[in-house]
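Submission sheet (multi-component)
Chains listed below:
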Amino acid sequence: MTESDIETTNRFEPRFDVSGLITAVCVDAAGGEVLMVAHMNAESLAMTRETGFAHFWSRSRQMLWKKGESSGHVLRLVEMLVDCDQDCLVLRVEANGPACHTNARTCFYRKVTPDGLLQRG
Amino acid sequence: MTESDIETTNRFEPRFDVSGLITAVCVDAAGGEVLMVAHMNAESLAMTRETGFAHFWSRSRQMLWKKGESSGHVLRLVEMLVDCDQDCLVLRVEANGPACHTNARTCFYRKVTPDGLLQRG
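Outcome: structure written.
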């Protein structure tokens, strides 16, 4: 497909990067807040679509993981969106508990101040 | 810093990947909708913080670009958030026009249906 076809097609043809990964932005289906950003390979994307729960690829552990497998804080998929060039996904999810492993509701719990400090929200 | 320090520090220490890039998720500051996802190198991050307008690194063109430089559809930075392990940013922005180069309001204008088709929102 040409670049233009990719933007207009109704066929889902996710484009994985050189490491075989695609970025997945998880947002709260109700409030819209960004909860976490992780990566998927083809297998974790397939598992997410088949099971209805977010699965990712851990770059540090080099393994497939189901978000919340040990904590119980799973992310139930409500809707999946893809961007214009099909190299990024947005997952609208229902979070069963805090999305962040630090137990914060979202991984983005700090803002960057103009002087380069981080401030908890 | 240890992993735990990175999660709790009030120092902004963005962690760029092996290509020197960090993912930036741009969301509408008012409604919270994800508008686009792009990448920043250290220079584009610095330019964004200095100028108050989103700058990125184009992987395809291998160059710094100011979003909206030719179209006028700039993204004014309202607030920047960083995630727990400081390898991803959320930019809360005010968009001066469509964020997507296709002239859609957001790059995420298609949802993935269960049967693998894309549907415009």
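Remark: The mean pLDDT of chain B is 96.
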